[in-house]
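Below is a filled-in request sheet from our internal design queue. Each sheet records the structural input a requester submitted and the sequence that came back. We keep these sheets so that new team members can see what a complete request looks like end to end.

REQUESTER: design group, bay 2
PRIORITY: normal
MODE: inverse folding
CHAIN LENGTH: 213
BACKBONE (tokenized):
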């Protein structure tokens, strides 16, 4: 092979070698840049994948929160409905109680009016003209009550007695002639004792209360 040793040939050779070196360096730089770009692209892909995974998690979380919110709204609506129902029931019961209270007050007022009328009527009635006294039974069995009619009228009297200790109750209708006495005791089926309460009533006269001494 012929070698050109002239200055021009040498310069051409140097230029060629310099061009080869530059191309080699450029190739190396390009390869390095390609490798770096490839790594950057992979990292970007990984970053994008990670971001997509986070987005998917957030979407899932958002769906869960939305589901919880809907459930909470449903529970709230149910509670609101129950609250409204209970409130309505309470209002109904309060109204019923108010009506019942009004009815009770009306009945109470009516009873008081009737009682006042009875008391007024009673205050206008004369005292029952019967005097009561007690003596011991000759047979030693309790006390005997002596009822004296101090009027000129024939009296038909309902007599009731109550023993406050034993709660024994005795009732008897008696006839007392004008100005006459009537004795009631063991022979008539009752033994009076101290503390017994005697009540006598007849039409046209005030009821008489008497406590055996």
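RETURNED SEQUENCE:
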């Amino acid at each position: 092979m012929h070698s050109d040793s002239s200055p021009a040939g040498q310069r051409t050779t140097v230029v060629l070698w310099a061009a080869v070196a530059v191309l080699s360096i450029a190739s190396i730089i390009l390869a390095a840049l390609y490798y770096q770009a490839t790594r950057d692209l992979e990292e970007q892909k990984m970053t994008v994948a990670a971001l997509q995974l986070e987005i998917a998690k957030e979407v899932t979380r958002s769906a869960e929160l939305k589901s919880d919110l809907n459930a909470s709204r449903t529970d709230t609506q149910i509670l609101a409905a129950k609250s409204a129902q209970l409130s309505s029931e309470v209002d109904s019961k309060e109204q019923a109680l108010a009506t019942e209270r009004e009815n009770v007050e009306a009945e109470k007022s009516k009873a008081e009016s009737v009682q006042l009328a009875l008391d007024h009527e009673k205050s206008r009635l004369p005292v029952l003209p019967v005097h009561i006294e007690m003596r011991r039974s000759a047979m030693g069995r309790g006390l005997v009550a002596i009822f004296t009619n101090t009027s000129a009228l024939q009296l038909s009297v309902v007599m009731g007695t109550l023993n406050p200790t034993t709660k024994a109750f005795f009732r008897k209708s008696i006839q007392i002639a004008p100005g006459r006495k009537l004795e009631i005791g063991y022979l008539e089926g009752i033994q009076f004792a101290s503390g017994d309460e005697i009540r006598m009533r007849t039409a046209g006269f005030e009821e008489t209360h008497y406590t055996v001494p």
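SHEET NOTES:
- The two ends are 172 Å apart (CA to CA).
- The CA atoms of residues 42 and 48 lie 10 Å apart.
FILED BY: M.R.
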